[in-house]
Amino acid sequence: EEGPRSRWLWSPSLHLPRVASRIEQRRAHERRGGGVLRAVDLGCGKGRDAVWLASRGWSVVGIDNQPSFLAHLREFARRQRLGARVHACVRGRATGLLGFLALTCTLGGQ
To answer: What is the DSSP letter of 101?
Structure first.
């Protein structure tokens, strides 16, 4: 997105930066190897949290029940060159969700 809305789209949910930072620091401290951090974003909407995490190197599965939101998520991630890190799934069709270190779910506004 460009224009005034672009800043809002890049602003993650209120507590996500703090939580993600803690997970990243703990992972670095424990030296668990060079694996990619993985997260599931339930009710991802248009994907601001999913794309934000992907921009920090996470691999993210965004799940929502609105196909139009998932299409926006895919396009948003592609435009940010993060399409390989963000995967969109319709609720009820997500499979293979093992090995994730974080789950994010934001209800309502920020």
So the answer is: S
- How many CB atoms neighbour CB 23 within 10 A? 15
CB contact at 8 A, 60 and 39? yes
pLDDT in tens, the chain (110 residues): 455 555 555 678 888 888 888 888 877 766 655 677 888 888 888 899 999 999 998 999 888 888 899 999 999 999 999 999 998 887 655 555 555 555 565 544 43
C-alpha separations of 40 from 25, 58, 98 in Å = 19, 10, 10
**This prediction's pTM:** 0.73
Residue from 57, 46, 55, 61 nearest 104 by CA: 61
Please answer whether residues 80 and 98 qualify as being in contact, where contact means their C-beta atoms are separated by less than 8 angstroms: no
Q: Are 103 and 50 in contact (CB under 8 A)?
A: no
